[in-house]
């Protein structure tokens, strides 16, 4: 039925056609014989695909071919630089905060000292007397707003007495 010669001839034709189809189907970089490394396009990769790719995988990014290892090294370097910047900023802010805190403590101490001085000054008998005169003068002022003319004369007389007392106390 089939002669050995026909079998050999058919096998050769099929083999030749397979080689031709294989050579024509390859990209130009691979047409020369040994297959080259597969180049992945960064804009077409998902995160999972990038993670799954070996460190030696060639990736085309912005018109340049780099390996995954190079990309990871650049990312690590940028992360390290970013952390260094953050550490410097934290140190600067901490120093600024400590300076501001020291200034606030100093200002607070001055205020507390002045309050203590004022409290001590108010504790003297003379200061208590001045406070009583000031309170009575305020009450007289409020009464004078709605007082009759006869009452106003009494209020003005008492106000004059209070003024004399204040002048005697040295105020």
The major pleated sheet works out as:
3 strands, mixed
N→C terminal distance: 142 Å
- Spans of at least 5 consecutive residues whose pLDDT stays below 50 are 12-34
Question: What is the number of strand segments?
Answer: 3
Helix and strand run: HEHEEHHH
Across the major sheet, the strand order is 1-2-3
**Average pLDDT rating:** 81
Radius of gyration: 49 Å
Shape: rod-shaped
Number of helices: 5
Helix content: over 70%
Structural class: mainly alpha
How much strand content do the residues show?
5-15%
Concise synopsis of the structure shown:
The protein has helices spanning 4-25, 47-52, 68-122, 125-145, 149-169; strands at 39-41, 58-61, 64-67. With 171 residues, it is mainly alpha-helical.
Description of the structure:
With 171 residues, the protein is mainly α. It has a domain at 124-171. The protein is built from 5 helices and 3 strands; from the N terminus they run αβαββααα. The chain has helices at residues 4-25, 47-52, 68-122, 125-145, 149-169; strands at 39-41, 58-61, 64-67. Strands 1-2-3 form a 3-stranded mixed beta sheet. α4 runs antiparallel to α5 (149-169). The longest helix has 55 residues, at 68-122. The radius of gyration is 49 Å and the shape is rod-shaped. The protein starts with a helix and ends with a helix.
């Amino acid at each position: 039925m089939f002669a050995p010669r026909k079998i050999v001839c058919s096998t050769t034709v099929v083999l030749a056609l397979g080689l031709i189809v294989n050579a024509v189907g390859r990209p130009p970089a691979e047409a020369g014989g040994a297959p080259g490394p597969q180049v992945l396009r960064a804009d077409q990769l998902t995160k999972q695909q990038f993670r799954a790719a070996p460190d030696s995988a060639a990736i085309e990014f912005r018109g340049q071919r780099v390996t995954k290892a190079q990309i990871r090294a650049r990312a690590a370097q940028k992360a390290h630089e970013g952390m260094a910047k953050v550490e410097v900023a934290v140190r600067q802010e901490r120093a600024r905060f400590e300076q501001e805190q020291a200034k606030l403590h100093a200002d607070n101490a001055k205020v507390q000292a002045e309050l203590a001085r004022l409290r001590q000054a108010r504790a003297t008998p003379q200061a208590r007397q001045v406070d009583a005169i000031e309170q009575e003068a305020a009450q007289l002022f409020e009464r004078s707003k709605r007082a009759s003319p006869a009452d106003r004369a009494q209020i003005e007389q008492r106000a004059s007495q209070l003024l004399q007392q204040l002048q005697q106390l040295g105020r």
